[in-house]
Amino acid sequence: MNRYKPHICVVFEDDKCRQLAHGFVLNHRIDDRRMQVMPPAGGWSNVLEIFRKEYVPYLHRFPEGYVVLVIDFDGRVIDRQQEFAKAIPEKLKPRVFVIGLKDDPETFKRQIGLNLNFEQIGMQLADECLDATFNIRQHEQCDHNKPEFDRCWQSTKDFLVRGTMF
Hints:
By secondary structure, the protein is an alpha/beta fold. It has a single domain, classed as Rossmann fold, CATH 3.40.50. 47% of the residues lie in helices and 16% in strands. It has 6 helices and 4 strands. It has a 4-stranded parallel β-sheet, with helices on both faces. Helix 1 crosses helix 5. The longest helix has 18 residues, at 44-61.
């Protein structure tokens, strides 16, 4: 990944979230050279701490970079959204996105009722973004992400989708 070109670093709470994002990156229409999937942080509070310590300076140094923070909201969507919003410097807010499931990946997988693994669900999520469809993305475990998904997609699709830029 070239840090001097538009790119995304994705920081995860746990391995199941990482698998979802890895599936997104595996979609053949996504330019995997523009997206770096980081190791799991080991909890939502660790994602927040890593963001503060590592990615705030990183984003100041690399103005073409974006960061997606993927957490489980554990039923506390508003509280966690507010906590992360406070931690993101105003100047960086257009390049930082916080998304996650209302509860956790296991609950989500069980509720959608599809016989897919987490990577396959991530690939389907990528298709939904690329095709502007809303099956999984409007599920009750994901619906609170719509403004953040839309903001992220509008900011990154021109370099993230193969064949659209550069």
